[in-house]
Write a structure and sequence with these properties.
This protein has a single domain, classed as Glycogen Phosphorylase B (Rossmann fold, 3-Layer(aba) Sandwich), CATH 3.40.50. The chain has nine helices and six strands, in the order H-E-H-E-H-E-H-E-H-E-H-E-H-H-H.
């Protein structure tokens, strides 16, 4: 199922730490850094319930993926994982129409067609409400070394995160703040089931991830790092020439 109706969110209540500002790919693309300033948990944003209805989501837990559908992202693995987690719905935010059509065929063949919903590309201002309606966030990347900006966004949302155990994730994430899994459909399914089966541990890890963002990636922390760097440069310039 796909929905093009906008999921409205009150801009005065939007989580400024939960958005991404992509280029022309729509919400979820990873070209620009999200603003993590004043990051706070998305909680129950105004519009989340209405967005669920517009998207055709039912009562079961929602697993959210946002981003492009390039092969390295592992979206096909997440669709296959959906076939192994019948107790959850999977919401995919992004993608080209041809990619979406192919994934719908894959989901239907796995018996997960009714539980895999594709919103298509969405405006970046809608991401906070998508995060608010999600119960689990997923980053199923197959490969890579650079940490995607959306991982910071996911942590800032205060929602449990399942991510593959590869360098693109492990240079920021560990098992104390996320559910790290092998980059396979079986691994992703196991991690999602683990989140759903541990109603105390999952929020605790999400809380620690949120605290990491507040502690190390807040605007205040950024200004401190920049000031320290400039102070170091200024001190070096004041040193008399040697020799």
């Amino acid at each position: 199922m796909s929905s093009t109706a906008p999921c409205r969110v009150d801009p005065t209540k939007k989580d400024p730490g939960a958005g991404e500002r992509p280029g022309d790919e729509g919400c979820g693309a990873e070209r620009d850094a999200p603003e993590l300033g004043g990051a706070r948990r998305v909680g129950e944003l105004d519009g989340a319930a209405a967005c669920r209805r517009q998207l055709g989501l039912g009562p079961p837990p929602v697993v959210l993926y946002s981003g492009n559908f390039e092969p390295y992202q592992g979206v096909e693995m997440l669709v296959e994982a959906a076939g192994r987690v019948p107790e959850a719905q999977f919401l995919f935010m992004g993608g080209e129409q041809g990619e979406i059509d192919a994934l719908r065929v894959q989901a239907a063949a796995l018996g997960a067609g009714e539980r895999c919903l594709f919103s298509g590309k969405r405006p970046p201002e809608e991401l906070p409400v998508f995060l608010a309606l999600a119960d689990v966030l997923a980053s199923p990347r197959r490969q890579g070394t650079n940490t995607p900006f959306k991982i910071f966004t996911y942590l800032a949302s205060g929602k449990p995160l399942v991510a593959t155990r590869i360098p693109t994730h492990t240079q920021l994430l560990d098992d104390s703040i996320a559910f790290l899994v092998e980059p396979t459909p079986e691994g992703l399914a196991s991690g999602i089931r683990d989140v759903l089966a541990r109603p105390e541990e999952a929020p605790a890890r999400a809380e620690r991830g949120y605290a990491l963002i507040e502690r190390e990636y807040s605007p205040e922390r950024y200004r401190e790092k920049v000031a320290r760097a400039y102070a170091g440069i200024a001190a070096a310039l004041r040193e008399p020439p040697r020799g």
